[in-house]
Amino acid sequence: MRASLAIACFVLAPAALRAQEARTIARYGFEDGTIAIDVRGDSVIAVAAAQGDSATTVTLRPSDARAWVDSTRKLISRAAPRKQTQVVLQRSMIESAENSGAAISLLRRAASDTTTFELLFSTAGFGKFPLALERREAVLFFAAMRRAVVATQPPAKPKAAKAARAKKP
């Protein structure tokens, strides 16, 4: 009996540890810096960014990340104003789940048919650094964030089991 228990532990333990490891969603090397998005085993999204000698990691709860991604993706798709005198500045921010002071902000500046984007990372030590993004880079970042949110959800139940339960009287 003990032998089978030991064998089961050796077989199941690596699978359980793999489930707790971080899953890499995306790693981007943009012109201005690098960003990595991982989903940890405890269903926390970790966004790490580095530029020059500055680096930070912001951890996000999936529900907060979903709301931020859904509302901020709309900022990226908007067209720039056509009037040359009008300048539109917009910001969308999300804070770390750990209340450490770390945060991510998307800054959008739109003026006379041009739009620029910037991700501003605030560190826990009240430092900050910006990463300038092109529109396509911003789209890539938010698509990866959406994949990270989806990756935190539990796997769907098989449809065959649902159909079999529905048929029982």
Number of helices: 4
State mean pLDDT (0 to 100 scale): 78
Q: What structural class results from the helix and strand content? A: alpha+beta
End-to-end Cα distance: 41 Å
- Write out the strand line-up for the largest beta sheet, numbering strands in chain order: 1-2-3-4
Total beta-strand segments: 8
Spatial shape: globular
- Order of helix and strand elements from N to C terminus: HEEEEHEEEEHH
Q: What share of residues is helical? A: 25-40%
Share of residues in strands: 35-45%
Sheet having the most strands: 4 strands, antiparallel
- Radius of gyration, whole Å: 21 Å
Query: Uncertain regions: pLDDT < 50 for 5+ in a row?
Result: 1-19
Structure description:
- With 169 residues, this protein is of the alpha+beta class.
- 36% of the residues lie in helices and 36% in strands.
- The protein is built from four helices and eight strands.
- The radius of gyration is 21 Å and the shape is globular.
Keywords:
alpha+beta, four-stranded antiparallel β-sheet, globular, disordered N terminus
Topology of this protein?
Elements: H1 2-20, E1 23-29, E2 34-39, E3 45-51, E4 54-60, H2 62-77, E5 87-95, E6 103-111, E7 114-122, E8 128-133, H3 135-151, H4 159-167
Antiparallel strand pairs: 1-2, 2-3, 3-4, 5-6, 6-7, 7-8
